[in-house]
Design a protein that fits this description.
It comes from Escherichia coli. This is Lactaldehyde reductase. It holds the Pfam family ADH_Fe_C. InterPro entries: ADH_Fe_C (IPR056798). The chain is built from 2 helices and no strands. The chain has about 40 residues and is an all-alpha fold. The protein has one domain. The radius of gyration is 10 Å and the shape is globular.
Length: about 40
């Protein structure tokens, strides 16, 4: 659900794998990505 996007974005940011990404992402970046994909 669209209202779950902030929680999903926070979970993605907290995921241990996120640290291995070549590009650093902020919570706002991830929220925007989810909204774009929605």
């Amino acid at each position: 659900r669209k209202e779950d996007i902030p929680a999903l974005a926070q979970a993605a940011l907290d995921d241990v794998c996120t640290g291995g990404n070549p590009r650093e992402a902020t919570l706002e970046d991830i929220v925007e990505l989810y909204h774009t994909a929605w």
